[in-house]
Each structure stands twice: as structure tokens, then as C-alpha cells.
Design goal:
Blueprint: H1 10-28, H2 34-50, H3 54-61
Length: about 70
């Protein structure tokens, strides 16, 4: 798995898990968990527009493998 977008992307896998988990928690525990779903969506939009992604920084800090982009 790699940090960058595309097949095998850690960021997409983690974002999907966060959204699914927070929706389930919102349905079965408290509706306030849906705010977390909104936060994940805002961060995904921010990342697509600016290139800044806090999860990418976290993954780099723990040593996740980065895919080499060839030109």
C-alpha cells in the first residue's frame, strides 16, 4: 500500500474506514458522530484543492512507503 492516490492508497482506505465507522456510530450511538463524517469530507475537499493532507503527514511520519512517480 502506498500514501499517494490511486490503487493501493492508504489515504483512501483510511478515509473510507473513517466515513463508514462514523456513519455507523451516528446511527447506533449518537447523531453527533455524523459531525466527524463531515470533517472527513471537508478534509478530503481541502486536500483535493490545496494538496495539504494531514493524514499524508501522519503516514509519512510513521514510515509508510511512498510510490515513486516516474516521468
Amino acid at each position: 500500500m502506498y500514501i499517494v492516490n490511486g490503487k493501493g492508497s492508504w489515504i483512501r482506505l483510511i478515509a473510507g474506514f473513517f466515513v463508514l465507522a462514523s456513519v455507523l456510530l451516528g446511527v447506533f450511538v449518537s447523531k453527533y458522530w455524523l459531525l466527524f463524517t463531515g470533517l472527513v469530507g471537508i478534509m478530503l475537499m481541502t486536500s483535493s484543492l490545496t494538496g495539504f493532507c494531514p493524514m499524508e503527514l501522519i503516514l509519512k511520519a510513521i514510515g509508510a512507503e511512498q510510490r515513486k512517480v516516474s516521468s
